[in-house]
Amino acid sequence: MRRLLLGAALLLALSAQAEERSLRVAPQATDARLKADESPHWVVYDPAVTEPLLVWLPGTNGHPASGPKGLFQAVRSAGFRLVGLSYLDDVAVSQVCKGPRLQAHPTCAAAFRQQRVWGDATAAPIDDRPEDAIVPRLTRLLRHLAEQDPAGQWVGYVDGDEPRWSRIVLAGQSQGGGMAAFIAKTRAVAGVLDFSGGWDREAGGELARWYRRASVTPPERWHATYHVQETAADLLAQSYRLLGIPPAQVHALDLPLRPGGQPHGEGIANAAYAPLWQQMLRTVRPEP
Q: Residue 92 belongs to what domain range?
């Protein structure tokens, strides 16, 4: 009997593994206007299960498929589909909105993020085209998946001209975390996981005013982390207060760094934080 039970368990495990699909989708396959040499989107899901979706936004110069594997495994184990979105992340807000440009354009950071997220900023400080923007890219990817894999039930993640935000958790690190927060200000997403997500400033040195905007995503649906050894730890903590994230959901990480690790990346790369990832994912997972 024990042998039969073990055999049945193995068959179930193999069946579950066989269901999961991992895809790399070239952005140009979803929109011919996009460049052919861009990193692919990365998609992992079980086509038979209509799980909520977590969209991962990498940090500056990040590539979706080479993201934090331990965190990604926690996402799948928590019952999410996973999309690592490829977007124009080769330059960060802090690299553009500084010096004379910031003095001449005090709200440079908000304009930068508006253009990178929505593609419709006035006097944008970057050359991103409207079709390059994060939300149009995500919408086109979801439509592409719905068309190419109708059995995968992707149509339920699109609502008109935008994603169906109520079924989507946004997560990202550094630049990507800031982009997730920027979207959640004006769209009621299922949740936000912001890992060391930036510290945009205005000309006088204070943090950018966009952090203070009212958020349509409820405060209890936000989590944020930073490592106490980060150079910008105090600014990150202040930005999270301005975003209105409840103090209990701001996680100041303080475990020893991984050998060769950098504080700015510890929140997504150190497997010692797996219990925290699981806790955050449980609290933002939308109800069926």
A: 25-284
Residue 253, domain member (yes or no): yes
- Name the nearest CA neighbour of 40 among 76, 75, 84: 84
Contacts of 10 (CB under 8 A, 6+ apart): none
* CATH number of the domain within which 200 lies: 3.40.50.1820
User: Do 178 and 185 form a contact (C-beta atoms < 8 A)?
Assistant: no
* Cβ burial 117-136 (10 Å sphere, 16+ → b, else e): bbbebeebbbebeeebbbbb
| Structure-block tokens of residue 161 | 């001209």
Angle at 180 between CA 177 and CA 181, to 5 degrees: 90
Number of separate domains in the chain? 1
Copy the structure tokens of residue 3: 């042998």
DSSP β-ladder status, 162-163 and 158-159: antiparallel
Is residue 12 a part of any domain in this protein? no
Calculate the CA dihedral of residues 238, 165, 266, 38 and round it to 10 degrees.
Answer: -120
Residues 210 and 239 sit within 8 Å (Cβ to Cβ): no
Kindly state whether residue 36 falls inside one of the protein's structural domains. Answer: yes
**Helices in the chain by DSSP H: which ranges?**
2-19, 27-30, 69-77, 93-96, 99-104, 108-117, 134-148, 175-186, 233-243, 266-269, 274-284
Q: Is residue 10 part of a domain?
A: no
Residue 80 reports pLDDT greater than 50 = yes
pTM over the 0.85 mark: yes
Could you identify the residue written with the tokens 């925290």? 276
> Hunting for tokens 């303080």 — which residue is that?
254
| 138-190 pLDDT tens trace | 999 999 999 999 989 999 999 999 999 999 999 999 999 999 999 999 999 99
